[in-house]
Design a protein that fits this description.
With 156 residues, this protein is α/β, with parallel strands linked by helices. It has a single domain, classed as Metalloproteases ("zincins"), catalytic domain (Collagenase (Catalytic Domain)), CATH 3.40.390.30. The protein is 46% helix and 16% strand. It has a four-stranded mixed beta sheet with strand order 1-2-4-3, with helices on both faces. α4 crosses α5. The longest helix has 17 residues. It is globular and about 40 Å long. The mean pLDDT is 94.
């Protein structure tokens, strides 16, 4: 189940479309029956999370909190109990996304939101971009997820 909690009121988001596309991405990976939490929030709120959990004193676009913290990139989650059907949580600042989408990425707000969801899903599944080779592998996963919703053009 995809649980979206919108804690801000300034920026309109099509929650049904966001949920539908997120579900499609999880389906492509074989995780359609897993839980994923998505918190939509403000720069102020994500700043607090970023400072608390990453020790970075600034807002950001997305934070990912995997449930399976020892999962290696490309490894399949082994379900041993109902709790194991949890991928984790994503926190997204809609203010940051709104400002960053066109300015930095030359994308619409909606397209950038979906690209960030793909990025966050890759992170909760153990992918990262600390070194270039890992980044290339992560981009392939993101492109696969975006292709599932017809947006693979977002990653060149």
């Amino acid at each position: 189940m995809i649980l979206i909690n919108n804690r801000q009121r300034k920026i309109k988001v099509n929650l049904k479309e966001l949920e539908k596309k997120t579900h499609k991405m999880l389906e492509v990976l074989g995780y359609q029956d897993f839980d994923l939490g998505i918190l939509l929030t403000t720069n102020k709120s994500i700043h607090t999370f970023n400072k608390t959990y990453r020790h970075k004193d600034k807002p950001t676009d997305i934070l990912s909190f995997p449930y399976h913290t020892d999962l290696k990139a490309g490894q399949k989650i082994k379900v041993l109990s109902p709790d194991d059907k949890n991928l984790g949580d994503l926190i997204i600042s809609l203010e940051y996304v709104q400002k960053d989408a066109a300015k930095t990425w030359a994308r619409s707000f909606d397209d950038h939101m979906i690209a960030l969801i793909a990025h966050g899903i890759a992170h909760v599944l153990g992918y990262d971009h600390i070194i270039d080779t890992d980044y290339k592998i992560m981009l392939k996963v993101e492109k696969k997820l975006l292709a599932a919703v017809g947006l693979d053009k977002l990653i060149q």
